[in-house]
Amino acid sequence: MCEKCKGKYYITTPIYYPSANLHIGHAYCTVATDTMARYKRLQGYDVLFLTGTDEHGQKIEDKAKEAGVTPQQFVDNIVEGEKGVLDLWKLMNISYDRFIRTTDDYHVAAIQKIFKKMYDNGDIYKGTYKGKYCKPCESFWTESQLVDGKCPDCGREVQDAEEEAYFFRLSKYADRVQDLLENTDFLEPRSRVNEMVNNFIKPGLEDLCVSRTSFTWGVPVDFDPGHVVYVWIDALFNYMTALGFENDKYDNLEKFWPADVHFVGKEIVRFHSIIWPAMLMSLDLPLPKKVYGHGWLNFNGEKMSKSRGNVVDPYLLSERFGVDALRFFLLRTFPFGSDGNFTNELLMGTINTDLANTLGNLVSRTVAMNQKYFAGSLTEGGESAPIDAELKALAAEVFAAYEQKMDKFQFSAALNEVFRLLDRANKYIDETTPWILAKTEESKPRLLTVMKNLCECIRVSAILLLPFMPETSEKIFDLLNVPANARTWEASCYCADEAAVWNTVVGAPLFPRLDVEKELAALEELSKANQKPAVEIEPYAEENVDFDTFCKSDFRAVKVKDCQNVKKSNKLLQFTLDDGTGTDRQILSGIAMYYKPEDLIGKTLVAITNLPPRKMMGRESCGMLLSAVHTVNGEEKLNLIMIDDAIPAGAKLC
Ligand code: MSP
Asked: Which CATH class is domain 547-640?
């Protein structure tokens, strides 16, 4: 380890379930983890920040089927596709060091070895599972765990389930896990300990069903075909396989395990604080130092979720207000351990109060006054007054308190400290009245010191804000021309003595004040425009058609010579078509609800011409016109296939 290095720090977020695109609730935990990772790096720790995606399970298999793609294609699209998981983390400036996907080969192979190890040591055994299953949560429950007969996590209906399955001897570890929770700081905040012990351990911890036979999209149990490993076993071990546990892909286990902290949402504390340590105990592995269960970001009092339709789009908010403002808002407004209610008004209020008024104004007033009174250049010299010492003492106090709060993951309290200093600096301007000092030559030395103190206050605050708003802090440093070595944690000690010099520049406001009414209306418009229509496509045919049979279909370009409604039918259109043979072809098509006949005359369409003729409403139809069908927001749509008019009538399409 290098001399300057303070040691290692391994921090993780839950790996996301890519069943739909992420919303601001998902971003909440990742922004917090990123802030912590940046803070530790700033302090000189060798940080490994892991995130990723949890890609197996029945829900993914079902959703892929619905979408007519393979499960792998389905998850690839959500992870790597446009506005997918990777795009979102890039947008939110998430500085992860490693990204794991549970479909990565090295992880899959490692999970098989891990499962076999626990089978070999007797902690995994074969039995029959009888109980209740919540499909959306992929969770098995016992009767006693249900709330009003429904899933205790999501409140939805559960189904009876019975299958041959493998079980993990969770009950064997009940006492050790209870001791871990009650007598150490393993799980925080403390309130979550009572919840775990009273709701799950004390009623009796039953063995956990850890394999499934009812679907195939999972890690296969290699010694018993037909079984796949329970998705939570597969998912939890990501924290170790991503370091090289049971694989050769990475070699960081010795250095980084045990994890310093796993940040997790409150509904998955159970998996991380009971099942996870029990499995590690089974394998005789060191336990993570801490699990921190944060609260939910709610919307109108309910947890955000796609199925409730109350998700807030982080793309839209970042585009409108900036990524840093959004990052800041999430951690400034809601204490990390508790639930918070997201509203657009609250977001804009925070931006206006803290970022535009307190921080933004302080910076712009300071650089503007430097410019006006000293042409931006604060030279050596000056004259101090007792009030300067007050500012300096407060900076030291704030620094110590900030560190203490950050180390306890109290992000909003740490930011409160920074804003204590910024507020004080704004007040210092009112108290020292630089505009009056500027009036006479003899008060110029005093004015010089006042401006230096303000610059120093801003510089120190910008260091403390670096983990939260990295881009904004850098912008501030640039306005103040702070050298690289004074943008560091080591340089966060307040120093505004006579020797200090500054060269500042005036820039655009950091956070322009928002007109809340106007912004709310604009957001409304944008979110309407951004709402992607829910397109449903027909399921793909499961049966293959052999190539020769397919080639027998005769597809031709046909030109519409005439098109009429069929009397007494509100569905049928009668087409007279030029098919290149010199004799008109008549085709009837049930598309009158979608097209006006006159709009189709002259168009080049595609017809299958070798279907046996059919009679409809007493008229003969010789072939079929091709069209595309799909459903948008529940409404059926149809578009005739129209091709380039340069293609001559009768051209064979193959
Ligand atoms: N795949 C599991 C985690 C496995 S970790 C070994 C999972 N994935 S998830 O995508 O459903 O959720 C990921 C994280 O996002 C969870 O910690 C969850 O609590 C968090 N959040 C999802 N919606 C949230 C809010 N509305 N508010 C705060 N956090 C939320 O669980």
From this structure: mainly beta
